[in-house]
Amino acid sequence: MRLRVLPVLGTMPAIMGQAAAALGKQVRHRLLQHVKNREGEARKRIEAGEEGLAAGVGVDVDDVEHLMSELWRNRCGITGERLGSALELIKWDEGREAAVDNLVLMSAKGLARWKKGGRGGLEAHVVERIEGRLEAARKLAEGLEKGGWYN
């Protein structure tokens, strides 16, 4: 009996890994779609004459993966809490397009704080931390554009 059960249990980690990967892919696609929808709304606001805005999506699904896991380490940029399923990528600077160096990963709590007052409603050390990470992303992007990884 024991010999027949063990081979079946050997496949369980692979099955669980595939399920987790599929869920992560859905989350990345949902986040990217939300960014695209917000940028569409920004275009409408620009066409209506609102100034100081920029619209455009300069990220893809792979960039969203990088933002979530590498840049923000699956933590809210504002609160620092580990994230659950309520995630959003929000533009830090409304005057620039949605790019890797301008998107902050936020939880529902962080987004609520952001909506109350934007950067002005956040503590100075939080703003400093976020801008430091965005600057690091900007430098990495500039290095890649110059061929930094291959030269």
Would you report the number of β strands? 2
Compute the CA-based radius of gyration: 19 Å
Taken as a percent bin, the fraction of beta residues is 5-15%
Low-confidence sequence ranges = none
Distance between the termini: 59 Å
Main β-sheet: number of strands, strand sense, barrel status?
Answer: 2 strands, antiparallel
Order of helices and strands: HHHEEHH
How many domains, in number, for the residues? 1
Q: What topology, given as strand order, has the largest sheet?
A: 1-2
Total helical elements = 5
Helix content class: 55-70%
- What's the average pLDDT? 84
Give structural notes:
The protein is mainly α and 151 residues long. The chain has one domain (2-145). It is built from five helices and two strands. The chain has helices at residues 2-9, 12-47, 61-71, 108-117, 124-145, and strands at 88-91, 103-106. It has a two-stranded antiparallel sheet. Helix 2 (12-47) packs across helix 3. The protein is globular. The chain starts with a helix and ends in a 6-residue tail after the last helix. The relative contact order is 0.10. The model has no long low-confidence stretch (mean pLDDT 84).
